[in-house]
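Annex B. Sample input.
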Amino acid sequence: MDFFLFRTHFRAGTNGMLFHKQHFICFCVELPWRCNEENTSCIPDGVYELERCYSLEFGHHIRVKKVPERCGILFRCAIASGNDSSGAIVPTLRLEGVGKGSGSKEALHKVLMRMEAGRSEGELFFLTVESVHSGR
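Annex B, continued. Sample output.
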């Protein structure tokens, strides 16, 4: 089961749109592109396996596996205490600026429900990430 994240990089952050089977699911926000530096950059373009996870810290979330030179990359809700995504991909229902959005919990729920539907079929989940740079 494939998800596609089409992103635009800006100096202050990265905005994207997430699709599944050519249907728009939600927006995503991330840190700006900073050469894949840990905790300061979004992840590089590529194809990544996804895994559903649960932790006390983040609740239900998705782990992005085998990101080059990175570990612990999550697809998770925004942290209520601030906009720091720490390199995570944060789904949102609404974009509110570059690298900023709202409705994160609801957006993640939409993604997890798509994965749940595929899980019963025993499918693996993959995320294809493609980007353009805005120059802004």
